Amino acid sequence: MNEDKLEPLRKRPIGVFDSGVGGLTVAKEIMRQIPNESIIYFGDTARVPYGSKSRETVTRFSRQIVHFLQAHDVKTIVIACNTASACALEELEKECDIPMIGVVKPGARAAAEVTRNGRIGVIATEATIGSQIYSHYIKELAPNATIYGKACPLFVPLVEEGLWQDPVTEEIARRYLMELIDCDIDTLILGCTHYPLIRSTVGNIMGERVTLVNPAYETAKELKRMLGQKGLLNREAPELGSNQYQFFVSDAAEKFKQFANSIIKYGILSAKKVNIEEY
Question: What pLDDT, on a 0 to 100 scale, did the predictor assign at position 1?
């Protein structure tokens, strides 16, 4: 595509969505690593969590959100949710004519690269663990690796309640992680975008010998590479007052805004509630 046609595309925002607030860890990394880009973020706070829902339900919810983001003329979509990446990405890519990336492949690639003994742990929601998607991608890159998955369903509500460094979170984390410690893993994928918010707790329990892989960081890096490859990186920072970062939710906008401001230090002025079922 020639430069004249690419220039308007470059200025379009990046669409980012998650089942709730966890995807803010991805949005934060995009803001940090690609500061010239604008973002339209959608958090499906009315229907969180996705991790205990069926593939069909997660795909239906994700499809509605993609339609919403397309209505905002985004140039690419980041599925900032491991469950939706595992359950819906493949289907949505067939239906969507704009580039789309999930958080699973970048995380799997990083884990395959950093492991020393080939024993990799994955903590995630029940749906992500059940899909075996991390195992599938890691095995493509490191066929001899052994992957140990552990569903940690209570982490999402604990994070959503802001109990990041609470004794109850540490106690539950110890119970979940004990069997992974016994497996002698040297790499652990934080396979849900909520989990980086309790990274220090997980890291303390696993010890220095275990490398933690944060798919939010890896996804922003992959997004930057992909946009560069397609000539879609915005070359100039948006004008002042241009509403560079916009946030939408399906419920509890005020609670989301308060939570978002505790994660992202860019001053989130508002979060607008939308009826996502209309899409």
Answer: 59
